[in-house]
Design goal:
The chain is an all-alpha fold. The chain contains 18 helices and no strands. Helix content is 79%, strand content 0%. The longest helix has 33 residues. Helix 5 runs antiparallel to helix 17, helix 9 packs antiparallel against helix 10 and helix 11 packs antiparallel against helix 16.
Length: 481
């Protein structure tokens, strides 16, 4: 394809690629919106359905859990059977599950619907990164991932405010239902557009590859064993629950051994050769640590501003928005800059996040009046740093992945992100609730403690980013011809 001058109209196939990306990003927007938009509704759900603190954590972390369980198998199925088909099925399931969430009459019904909703979201998301790998190359691929990162930031930005507006209009008692129901018309339109614009699967020739059901079962079991004790740490008394963690390690080791064996005769669920690439290995580890701290921030701050400071859902959403606005703005810039600065951009972003959150922690610990206004600048700084982490890290991590493995590789990366999200909500949320109980209801002290745990998780991500940067710079430069 001839590029021509910048003022020359895009070729039809180029326009179709970007239209296909726009349609694919609708699902990313919806599924990530359902993480941030629910945070401001938690107190309303608690009052309307009589939900416990454990229920609230499950409503958030259960979504992340099934999201993570579905990502790798769905990415593998999309690579082998056609990404558009999996996208359509997953999006339809997400729409139906959203309707069930809006109709829930008890906290367990809402939790069950959220589990299904998370699984459907997990089926869709790896197809998006797979489509980007399939449709774009070179600098265009970096720009496409930049648009994906901006979409992630935008969904996070508008989530708290949109949730607050919906609750203000529909009422705090039952308005939380419309937070889920907004997905129904948006998803229905997306289904029609996806069928029209997303590329159809190529005709399959030869015998179909195995989808590795043993690998799916082993990986799913390991994830459940890993996350259950974290999610139920306050409900399951005694130390026996922590025995599930070494059990998870054993099952995960069995998964690795099985994948190596299965790779000798067929395509495995996860091609472990991906981790021979240092960039991919460091990038997935960094994503795990980063999302552990990132997702928990919105959970604890939404509860703090409403339950601790008495803010309305709308004011709570506005108080959190500076972080998300900064993230949305910097994500678009990060997609353009990553080709020039590489991993150094991620390191700068991580350091900026830590500085911004440390400043917010100092403000909250002082428990001043107008705390929402005083935390706006620190959260904006942290958000700007966040935008320089997510998109560049995703671009660098997937840069060397073959197109035919784009869905599976993106699924593994997103699995690490979702595991991190579930761990972060469970870990930091548990710290906040425990501190809240021991301090006699001091929300400022509890949330400040939770933010310090988030900063510690960001520090782990920063250490991985620095290690990768040092390794990359020590690597000998290629010889000139």
């Amino acid at each position: 394809m001839t590029t021509g001058q910048q003022t020359r109209p895009a070729a039809p196939d180029e326009r179709l690629r970007w239209r296909a990306l726009a349609v694919a990003l609708v699902a990313s927007f919806m599924t990530l919106l359902d993480v941030s938009i629910v945070n401001v509704a938690l107190p309303s759900i608690e009052g309307s359905l009589g939900a416990t603190q454990s229920d609230l954590q499950w409503i958030l972390s259960g979504y992340a859990l099934t999201f993570a369980l579905a990502l790798v198998p769905a990415g593998r199925v999309g690579d082998a059977r056609g990404r558009r088909t999996v996208y359509l099925v997953g999006l339809a399931g997400f729409v139906l599950a959203s309707a069930a969430c809006g109709a829930a009459q008890t906290s367990w019904q809402l939790t069950a619907a959220r589990l299904v909703q998370g699984a459907a979201a997990g089926a869709v998301i790896p197809q998006v990164s797979g489509f980007i790998q399939q449709l774009f190359q070179g600098a265009d691929r970096g720009r496409a991932f930049g648009v994906l990162g901006a979409t992630i930031g935008l969904s996070t930005a508008v989530g708290p405010v949109l949730g607050g507006v919906i609750l203000a209009v529909a009422g705090e008692d039952q308005g939380w239902r419309w937070i889920f129901l907004v997905n129904v018309p948006l998803g229905a339109v997306a289904l029609v557009l996806a069928r029209r614009y997303l590329p159809a699967p190529r005709p399959h020739r030869g015998p179909r590859e195995s989808l590795d059901p043993v690998g799916v079962a082993l990986l799913g079991t390991a994830l459940v064993l890993l996350l259950l004790p974290l999610l139920e740490q306050r409900e399951w008394e005694g130390a026996a629950k922590w025995l599930l963690l070494p059990a998870a390690a054993v099952v995960l080791a069995g998964f690795v051994l099985w994948e190596r064996h299965h790779a000798r005769r067929s395509q495995p669920l996860v091609d472990l050769r991906l981790f021979r690439s240092a960039s991919y290995a460091f990038g997935t580890g960094l994503a795990l640590a980063y999302f552990s701290g990132f997702t928990a921030i919105f959970f604890v701050l939404a509860l703090y501003f409403q339950s601790g400071e008495g803010y309305s859902p709308l004011l709570s959403g506005l108080a959190i928005t500076p972080f998300a606005v900064g993230s949305a703005f910097a994500s678009a810039a990060g997609g353009r800059l990553v080709g020039r600065y590489g991993r150094a951009l991620v390191v700068v972003g991580l350091a900026t996040v830590a500085v911004g959150l440390a400043a917010a922690d100092l403000v909250i610990a002082g428990d001043p009046e107008r705390v929402g206004l005083l935390t706006a600048l620190p959260l904006l700084v942290a958000g700007l740093g966040s935008g320089l982490v997510i998109t560049p890290n995703q671009t660098l991590t997937l840069a060397t992945v073959p197109v035919e493995q784009g869905g599976a590789a993106g699924g593994v990366l997103n699995t690490f992100q979702r595991i991190g999200a579930a761990i972060g909500i469970a870990l930091v949320g548990g710290v906040v609730f425990n501190r809240l109980e021991s301090s006699g209801g001091d929300w400022s002290e509890a949330v400040a403690t939770g933010l310090r745990w988030s900063i510690a998780l960001f520090a782990v991500a920063l250490a991985l980013g620095v290690a990768e940067l040092v390794r990359d710079r020590r690597r000998p430069a290629p010889a000139r011809p």
